[in-house]
Design goal:
single chain, Rossmann fold, OB fold (Dihydrolipoamide Acetyltransferase, E2P), 6-stranded mixed sheet, 5-stranded antiparallel sheet, 8 helices, about 25% helix
Length: about 350
């Protein structure tokens, strides 16, 4: 598969602060590539360098093997969708989508054909004469995407475009964006601090922290095999345990957990345990686990998932446990003391 975007040693410095530090990566043509990280990690700065709105301090940007050095934003084969959407409220849907094409001075017939085709692709046919102020949040989102895609960019950059939507609409738009990207075949580069958005929609995800990429991988590998402690703690829910001392065949954490070392091939400084790796009331036939007792603090039920917040009996450390959807724990209640087992296959050590 050909590389549509290549970033080499990209750095951006603002006086004494370095926002992006020597970042190198590439993106496959037709892929959905997300950059995931906390606020202030440098992801928006990186996106703006790709778009040309910010000049890089060092490094190179290539799109289809052509250097973007010195090329202004309006001449780069990219378009960008902002979180604010930046639609024109005085214009109707058709006028918003046609705006860029008119600036290119295309013929009326070509503009009409391209706008109609794009509105059909984003399921907005029949909305041409509506003001954008009359649309729902999801419809406005589709108008912003249509306005960008109608320009036929090689790459569409999306800067946290779902951040202003309510939760239900955001979940719906994640599916729509993924399907739309697959249908159109346009390369999407999507930045977000929401791990669910990145994991659900992307072919590849880069986790960014303090201006650097910690790991670039498929969503499944990021979750299952985080390469750094930051990725383990940032992607998905985890129980974090810091090592206090080694004691023969056991390790003791700062919280007071005492775990058997079996299954660990080195002495870690920090361990991460996913809530689903903790087995509530393990059966006796499970032998390759470490067992301990917890007291149920509270039970968290949100419809599709049930999680248990518990206190480890010896240390007093709080842990989070996920229950399988088909688990039979209807009689579990706050204050109960139950046994928990750790599945070492899912234990991440750093």
């Amino acid at each position: 598969m050909s590389k549509i975007l290549e970033i080499k040693n990209l750095t951006k410095e603002f006086k004494e602060f370095t926002a992006v530090k020597n970042v190198t990566f590439d993106v496959d043509e037709g892929g959905f590539f997300s950059i995931l990280g906390p606020s202030g990690c440098g992801k928006t700065t990186l996106l703006r360098m790709i778009s040309g709105f910010i000049k890089e301090s060092k490094g190179e940007i290539f799109i289809r093997n052509e250097s973007m050095s010195g090329i202004p934003p309006e001449k780069r084969p990219v378009n960008i969708v902002f979180q604010s959407l930046a639609l024109f409220p005085m214009m109707n849907v058709r006028e918003n989508v046609a705006f860029g094409l008119k600036r290119q001075k295309l013929s009326k017939s070509e503009i009409d054909d391209r706008v109609s085709d794009m509105l059909s692709r984003v399921s907005l046919q029949g909305f041409e004469k509506k003001k954008v102020t009359e649309l729902s949040g999801g419809q406005r989102q589709r108008v912003a995407i249509a306005r960008s895609l109608v320009m036929k960019p090689s790459i569409l950059l999306l800067d946290e475009p779902l951040g202003a939507l309510d939760r239900k609409l955001r979940e719906h738009m994640k599916i729509e964006l993924k399907l739309l990207q697959k249908e159109l075949g346009t390369t999407f580069i999507y930045i977000t601090h929401d791990q669910s958005e990145a994991l659900v929609m992307s072919d590849k995800v880069a986790v960014m922290n303090k201006g650097r990429f910690e790991q670039i991988d498929t969503p499944r590998n990021l979750y299952k095999n985080p390469k750094t402690a930051f990725v383990a703690g940032f992607v998905g829910e985890s129980n974090r345990l810091e090592l206090k001392r080694r004691d023969g065949d056991f390790i003791t954490t700062k919280d007071g957990w005492k775990l058997e070392k079996k299954g660990l091939d080195f002495d870690p400084e920090v361990l991460y345990i996913r809530p689903e790796a903790l087995i509530l009331a393990p059966t006796e036939d499970l032998i390759d686990i470490s067992r301990f007792h917890v007291k149920i603090r509270t039970i968290l039920f949100d419809g599709s998932n049930t999680k248990v917040s518990a206190i480890e009996s010896t240390s007093g450390a709080e842990i989070l446990i996920s229950l399988p959807q088909n688990a039979k724990f209807e009689n579990l209640k706050e204050g109960d003391t139950v046994e928990v087992g750790i599945n070492y296959d899912d234990l991440k050590c750093y």
